[in-house]
Amino acid sequence: MTPPARTRVRPLSGSSEETRIPALLGAMRVILHVTVAGLLVIGLVRSLIPSVRAGEHDLVWQIVSLAAVFALIYLAGTVVEKRRSDRSPLGDRSDPAGGRAGAQAGGQSALRAEGQIVVRAQLAWLTAVTLTWLGLMAVHVDFAWLAFPLFFLHLHVVGPRSVPMAIALVVLLTVTVILGFWWHEGRLGIGAVVGPVIGAVVAVAMSAAYSLFYAEARTQRRIAAELQATRDHLARSERHAGALRERERWAQDLHDTLAQGLASVVLLSRAAQEQHPAEPLAGQLQQIERSAVDNLAQARALVEQRGPGAGLTAELVAACRTTQDTARSAGSDLAVEFHGPDAGRGGEVGEVGEAGDPPMGAEAATAVLRVTQSALANVLQHARASRCVVTFAVHRDEVTLDVFDDGAGRGDRPEGFGITTMRQRANTAAGTLTVEDAFEPRSGGGATGTVVALSVPRWGGRA
């Protein structure tokens, strides 16, 4: 049964609200319990009145005691059943003995949990109820009619394990009732034979209907769970598609604006150098061209959704070299050193080995590159430093990056947009970022320097 397209499917834990079958099953259990109570009261009244009139006080106490024991044992089973039924998201087929273990919410594991039966506890309870009933029937024949609800108990406790055994027990109870009538009354009337037989047949038929209803309820709940999972998957797919569309839009805007502007800067700087090749301005124009070319390449990589790939170390070295050249062109004596895999001897930013980068996840490589670029930009623009050291290391389970400068330091200033962005990139890659002063502040208010430290899992996720 497939729910209509407009049906609002709630999570699995709310499936009892999506179908009336669990309510029907619960009503059937309540009717069974009420039937037991009613037949027990009728048997008490019909057996106690003649015994009291005859002054058979020992028999009265015997009947009352057996009836009280029967009621207590049966009540204990119904209490256990109610608790398990309340825990079950289906209002599941807990038989009157306390039945099936309450299903735990969630998918196929819940359906498997419903199929588990606490056989040892159920059989002990059913045996105690049956023996107490035999004692009552031995005292007075009117307790024989309690066999009708007992048919259901045997079918629901034994039936899930062995239907033939359950039917055999029902037949045995039916024969026991008939023999009880014969033993108490000395003869067998039509009612004493037909009544128990019809009751047994009705019990078997109603138990089969109960099982069909319960199977239908489980099917409906499974369908609801699958539909909910499908809708969740579709929602995630739609969110992912929306993110891709937004990324595509940003890529187009980046290509049509920033990338084109950088290309224009490159062309203009080259034209200026060709017109005035010997003037001092030419050196600065060359640096402008190099910076524009580097940034144009990065903008195109973003448009094409390319990460740093296998050239991470080379890109880190290039970022350090560009930062140093830009600072020198602007009149600063900033020296930038790089230490890392295949970085060349002595930390010189102009040399890179040929062995290649150690393998790592794309998310970690992107985070390292972007944080390096942002930290170097802060050094260039704000630190007023004379020395900057970038240290990149690849460990077994994580990748670390440290960017140190001997500049003015941060002090008590609040974090700006650049640091906030670096921290967000670290969080996205499941890593951590710390930014702190490198030295203790001097009494005269001298420079303290800054250290930016990044640590991210090498292959993504928490290491």
UniProtKB/TrEMBL annotation:
<dbReference type="InterPro" id="IPR050482">
    <property type="entry name" value="Sensor_HK_TwoCompSys"/>
</dbReference>
<feature type="transmembrane region" description="Helical">
    <location>
        <begin position="59"/>
        <end position="80"/>
    </location>
</feature>
<dbReference type="InterPro" id="IPR017205">
    <property type="entry name" value="Sig_transdc_His_kinase_ChrS"/>
</dbReference>
<feature type="region of interest" description="Disordered">
    <location>
        <begin position="86"/>
        <end position="107"/>
    </location>
</feature>
<keyword id="KW-0808">Transferase</keyword>
<dbReference type="InterPro" id="IPR036890">
    <property type="entry name" value="HATPase_C_sf"/>
</dbReference>
<keyword id="KW-0902">Two-component regulatory system</keyword>
<protein>
    <submittedName>
        <fullName>Two-component sensor histidine kinase</fullName>
    </submittedName>
</protein>
<dbReference type="InterPro" id="IPR011712">
    <property type="entry name" value="Sig_transdc_His_kin_sub3_dim/P"/>
</dbReference>
<feature type="domain" description="Signal transduction histidine kinase subgroup 3 dimerisation and phosphoacceptor">
    <location>
        <begin position="246"/>
        <end position="305"/>
    </location>
</feature>
<keyword id="KW-0418">Kinase</keyword>
<feature type="transmembrane region" description="Helical">
    <location>
        <begin position="166"/>
        <end position="184"/>
    </location>
</feature>
<dbReference type="GO" id="GO:0016301">
    <property type="term" value="F:kinase activity"/>
</dbReference>
<feature type="transmembrane region" description="Helical">
    <location>
        <begin position="117"/>
        <end position="137"/>
    </location>
</feature>
<keyword id="KW-0472">Membrane</keyword>
<keyword id="KW-0812">Transmembrane</keyword>
<dbReference type="Pfam" id="PF07730">
    <property type="entry name" value="HisKA_3"/>
</dbReference>
<feature type="compositionally biased region" description="Basic and acidic residues">
    <location>
        <begin position="86"/>
        <end position="95"/>
    </location>
</feature>
<feature type="transmembrane region" description="Helical">
    <location>
        <begin position="21"/>
        <end position="47"/>
    </location>
</feature>
<keyword id="KW-1133">Transmembrane helix</keyword>
<feature type="transmembrane region" description="Helical">
    <location>
        <begin position="190"/>
        <end position="213"/>
    </location>
</feature>
